[in-house]
Write a structure and sequence with these properties.
alpha+beta, Thiol Ester Dehydrase, Chain A, seven-stranded antiparallel β-sheet, elongated, HotDog_dom_sf, Thioestr_dom, PTE-AB_protein
Length: 261
């Protein structure tokens, strides 16, 4: 059936009523005007500034990570250590809290050792300076037989990039456990007999951490001391758990460490 014969009027009407505004609308949507083009320039400049700043920051971060840490005693090292000390004094809330607690006494580490002796010790010699143990402070609570140590772990202690080596952490933990044990022993000396470590979360270099070390007074004697330690970041997250047993040897004569840390 030829529908053109039946609906001639409808075909003519549809032809006459075809919208005449379609062409102009299509042209205006596909051809941006000058005002739209000019408005994009500020946005492009903002994006360029943001990504440029990110690129500079990332480049500096990479440069810091691949460059060798400053040598202990150098001018750069002294500047870095001054900044570490400044952050410790005014930038760590836990330090302010401990200084307000009357039961905690703040001490430097290695007060018992001469400068010559410290140069031959692992943690105060090869691991000294901002690249290693840039800062170690001890807060001793004699009533609870507890130490809270605040340490700065530098980039020279890394195993994987940005992460502190597990062995370096074990060394710092061992010393803190030993501090609690030796202060308990009347002989003021002792050695590590057993050390257990459980790593719970990554420990990142160029950061401050706290070591909470406590003596087990019920199990400890004059020749054996049991202690536990927790390493936490500045947000309080548990990173490492450790326990240790320390003894006073019967057949080995050891020098007294002294009454300090």
């Amino acid at each position: 059936m030829n529908h053109s014969r039946i609906f001639p009027a409808l075909r003519q009407s549809a032809t006459r009523t075809r919208p005449s505004w379609r062409v102009p609308i299509r042209n205006s949507s596909t051809t941006p005007n000058a005002r739209t083009q000019s408005s994009r320039w500020p946005r492009h400049l903002i994006y360029a500034g943001i990504f440029g700043a990110l690129g500079v920051g990332a480049g500096k971060w990479m440069d810091d990570k691949i460059s060798a840490p400053p040598a202990p005693g150098s001018v750069v090292d002294r500047i870095e250590l001054q900044e570490v000390q400044r952050v410790f004094d005014i930038g760590l809330p836990i330090v302010q809290e401990l200084r307000r607690e009357p039961d905690y006494v703040e001490k430097d580490v290695y007060e018992n050792f001469s400068e010559d002796h410290k140069e031959h010790r692992l943690t105060s010699g090869p691991l000294a300076g901002s690249r290693g143990l840039g800062l170690q402070k001890v807060f001793w609570n004699d009533k609870e037989k507890k130490i809270v140590s605040v340490v700065f772990l530098g980039p020279g202690l890394e195993g994987w990039p940005t992460m502190v080596h597990g062995g370096a952490l074990g060394t710092v933990i061992d010393e803190n456990l030993g501090r609690v044990a030796i202060r308990h022993f009347p002989a003021r000396t002792g050695v590590t007999a057993n050390l257990n470590l459980n790593y719970r979360a990554p420990v990142y270099s160029d950061n401050f951490y706290t070591l909470h070390t406590t003596l087990d007074q019920e199990r400890s004697t004059d020749r054996k001391a049991y202690a536990k330690c927790e390493v936490r970041d500045m947000a309080g997250r548990l990173c490492v758990e450790a326990t240790g047993l320390f003894v006073v040897p019967k057949k080995l004569q050891l020098a007294k460490v002294g009454d300090h840390f």
